[in-house]
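Sorry to interrupt, but I need a hand with the structure work. I would like you to pick a protein and set down its sequence and fold. Please put the record directly below this note.
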Amino acid sequence: MAKKRSGGGLSPAQQAAKFLGVSVLAGAVLAGIALPAVGALGLAAKGSVESFDELPANMKTPPLSQRTTILDADGGTIATVYSRDRTVVSLKNISPYMQKAIVAIEDSRFYQHGAVDLKGVLRAVNKNVQSSGVAEGASTLTQQYVKNVFIEEAGDDPTKVAQATQQTIGRKIRELKYAIQVEEELGKKKILENYLNITFFGQQAYGVEAASQRYFSKHAKDLSLPESALLAGIVQSPSRYDPVNDEAEATKRRNTVLQRMAQVGDISQAESAEAQKAPLGLKVSTPKNGCITAVDGAGFFCDYVREVFLSDPVFGKTKEARAKIWNQGGLTIRTTLDPKAQKSAQASIKEHVYKSDDVATAASVVEPGTGKILAMGQSRPYGFGKDETQMNLSVDQAMGGGVGYQPGSTFKPIVAAAALEQGTPATKTYASPYEMDYPSPVAACDGKTWNEKNVPVANENETEVGPYGMKEATAKSVNTYYVQLISDIGICPVTEMAQKMGVERADGGKMQQAPSIALGTQEMSPLTMANAYATFASRGMYCTPVAIESITQRVGQENKSLEVPKSTCSRAMSETTADTINTLLRGVVEDGTGTEAGLGSRPSAGKTGTTDERYAAWFVGYTPNMAGAVWVGDPAHERKMVDITIGGVPHDKVFGGEVPGPIWRDMMTGALEGKQAPDFSYVDIPDSKDKGDNDDGGNGDDEADDGNDNSTDGGTGDDGSDDDGGDDENFIGELGNGGNWGDIFQGQGNGGGRG
């Protein structure tokens, strides 16, 4: 004997047979649309329930997409992002008025019928015949819920959305089959709860909680009778009944819902009449979505977090799988961003570089020993307007950045570290003339050599004439010293040290095997340089950068933790080598090219860099507990920083110590406020022999002279000598068998890194 349902319905098979029979006989309505005659009915025309039973029995219900909240390290909200703005709530957290209103207007017999309302079908058939059209549909609340599931499953794919909503017999039959399944498995209350959480209410709001917040700035559990009626009325046509854009039409629709609630006995006629007199009472919250809404200029960091999620296999084997999780949302992502450091970075940037300037600046701060990204900001805001950009100037191209910028002399400490690891003493002295040719040949990797003669390199200032030891050469950023140093140890140890420190080209290309890399000719990103210098601060331990501390995902009414990428740390150099570099770079901020970046009594170290032609200027520095990099330049590599005004201050020539240095100083001062001020471990590096007046030139990079703009690796000098050594394109070439490197330096010009 067939099983009777509590709502007075029949068993699934009986419902299907009876419904299909009614549809065939009536030749009209099936789940809310007018059907053609029996011949076009297809599946039903076969006259058997067997064909109906061939449809898949189990509907896969995807988790509902929800908003994702990105938090800083202290739990403060950075931004809210979502594919669909939705917050899933239980039925007990939805106003009883709202529950009654949606049932009254959408399916008043919801609690009396099964998945299909046979009386409703017949009523709709009769009205449609009388009107010779489709005057009334017959979809139950359950069928509408099933349709919404199909739409949710389609996501943002327009083709799938069209398939999920197309007015065809096949889709309606499938909708019916699944509606019967849903009724059997979930029951009325759960169906109502799911329906209210999945339905679109207009104004980017999916689900009743988001709608309540959008229109009334309150939780769904607190909705009043007229407010509930308004939201229930929107569902049929969110654009037509949008109360924000058409108050009169929305009011009419609300009153229709209230009248219907009275007709079905949910409220009294007096209550309905009183509620109909009430104003709409809107208190609209503006939709806020995406990294563009991030606080304290953290939009680019927010975007970086998204890029990490979409690119890291820990979140899914394929990009499509990761994107599906991201779009599904419901994530709470706690990041490494330090709110104090972020505010300080953005405040310093805003003070020193205007968004309308010809050039821009970008800065990143990381924590030594953990790889945690503490701050990330830039002068051109995240956006689409004038003087705004969506390009993250702090990161590599693969993570939403550009092709990078030549780091100039900020690369020299990596050369020094490689030399020290090879056994070169910190007291090593070279003649270091003002101008010289690159030594040749120079050993490269894989047994190859760089073998090119008569390629000149010069210091920033003609007074910079050696001999110099490593300590003085680093403080003054002497190009000819570092060219001789890399020629002695070879190119390969330098590129290997760079790799150990996570230093790679921003465009993802291979590091070139040319001695000019000593002067910073390979484009890097600020985040790369900040994290590399953190290796020195942590006494030789390199840690991969991380932006995410933890992630929880809300699925239904439960939260589950997701695995997140962890920083991996490895030893890049000995503690002695790192301590030696710290000693060398302390001299840069004490009496070298980076004095304007000094932090007063707090121990710090760093290096300036100004590229050939002054397309970029850098300061990269650190304390034992924080490392940061600041770049200033034209992202398009078109505007030279000569005769330029930056942040309202005119400059004849820009040096790393003059513009990036103060940005770094102010950024780090605020970020480190209230934190301990530990000192470095130092080594004793004796000064080189007295050279008389030769100590003069270039120790204040702001006064450094350009020197000979025709020499390949341009001078050092104060902030002057950048490791860049010419434009990137001037160094393009491949290492031949025997080492013909002429193409690399063709048309290069002054090439060198300036202090």
Remarks:
- The first helix runs from residue 12 to 26.
- The chain is about 35% helix and 15% strand.
- The CA atoms of residues 613 and 640 lie 6 Å apart.
